[in-house]
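User: Here's a chain of 221 residues. Predict its fold as tokens.
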Amino acid sequence: MGGSCLPTAVCHREYFLFAAPGAAERGRCREIARNDGPRVNGEITSRTCRLIGVDGSQLGLFGVRDALRIAQEQGLDLVEIAPNANPPVCKVLDYSKYKYEQDRKAKAARKNQARVEVKEMKFRPKIDVGDYETKKAHVMRFLKKGAKVKITIMFRGREMAHPEQGRIVLDRLAEDLKPWATVEQQPLMEGRNMHMLTAPIKGAFDVTPEGDEVTSEKKEK
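Assistant: Prediction complete.
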């Protein structure tokens, strides 16, 4: 048949095949791995699209077949970057490079997400002053290391009849920790225990309560 060939889509396992420039003459197709991501080339179901050129220029409204031909003539792909627009927005680009760049950015974002450790410290509703101060010091150490701390009040036997005693302990602790931590989850009763989650305030441990800078572990001791 005369004239140029239109790109043709063939689904084969996890790959999407389409005719590359000159494929009709060479009798082979270009192959793109397709596991997820935007629709590419023959996967695009819309009849029309708003086309963006490889240089980012707005080319206007095109039939998808014509847009595919434009991409094919440049040895590139047609990628649907805004499928919910009316009509969808497609861009001419090298999909392999585009996918690599997207994966690289996603990996960097995941790497930069700080993993926040959650520690737990258990109290009793009728805790004495000495135990309270000791456990509070442990909570402070966890917070200083950047961990969130789950405070648990453990009730036993008849103590369950007076949950307000546990709330008093948690409210006192929240007040004592105020310069260094925020209450991320308010006290909540679950079964026989009452929980509260605290999180460190960024930069709160850079100075001591007296205003002296904390410069070393030795000074902390």
